[in-house]
């Protein structure tokens, strides 16, 4: 049976952020923590060893695979910040067009620093991602 690797755990979010070596990146991580907490309404939790997540949902695919995932989150990686939003949301691209300097992958959006992006659009991305996922995977 498949064992999900990235799970919510009780590790300290603050201790994790304090391990970020670059002082500017650490400051941005604390600001992201504030933005995600206030905007999502969920407390921060560590997911795996290096992701900070807010809220969770349970998914089940047609294949039978199921598990739990964070609604939104971020990780202060060495090269950049990974921001975690949902995939499949058609409104995401329109918001990203107004976001500022970033790169995007399938489910991640990468930024170098908070100064590169519009914080109000970040808040919209957080809200939109949560709304999309809560509608797609309502608590049963």
Low-pLDDT residue intervals, each spanning 5 or more residues: none
Based on secondary structure, the structural category is alpha+beta
Fraction of residues in β-strands = 25-35%
Strand order of the largest sheet: 1-2-3-4-5-7-6
Largest beta-sheet details:
7 strands, antiparallel
Q: Helical proportion?
A: 25-40%
Walkthrough of the structure:
By secondary structure, the protein is an alpha+beta fold. It has 4 helices and 7 strands, in the order E-H-H-E-E-E-E-H-E-E-H. The chain has helices spanning 13-18, 23-40, 92-97, 119-136; strands at 8-9, 44-47, 51-60, 66-76, 81-84, 103-104, 108-111. It has a 7-stranded antiparallel sheet. A hairpin with a 3-residue loop joins strand 2 (44-47) and strand 3 (51-60). Helix 2 (23-40) packs across helix 4 (119-136). The longest helix is centred in the N-terminal third of the chain and has 18 residues, at 23-40. 25% of the residues are buried.
Secondary structure layout:
Elements: E1 8-9, H1 13-18, H2 23-40, E2 44-47, E3 51-60, E4 66-76, E5 81-84, H3 92-97, E6 103-104, E7 108-111, H4 119-136
Helix pairs in contact: 2-4
């Amino acid at each position: 049976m498949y064992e999900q690797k990235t799970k919510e755990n009780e590790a300290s979010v603050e201790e994790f952020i304090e391990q970020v070596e670059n002082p500017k990146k650490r400051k941005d991580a604390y600001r992201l923590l504030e933005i995600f907490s206030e905007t999502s309404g969920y407390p921060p939790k560590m997911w795996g060893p290096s992701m900070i997540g807010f809220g969770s949902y349970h998914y089940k695919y047609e294949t039978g695979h199921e598990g739990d995932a964070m609604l939104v989150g971020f990780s202060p990686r060495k090269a950049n910040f990974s921001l975690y939003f949902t995939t499949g949301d058609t409104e995401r691209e329109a918001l990203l067009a107004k976001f500022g300097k970033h790169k995007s992958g399938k489910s991640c959006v990468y930024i170098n620093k908070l100064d590169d992006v519009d914080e109000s659009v970040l808040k919209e991305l957080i809200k939109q991602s949560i709304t999309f996922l809560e509608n797609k995977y309502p608590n049963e």
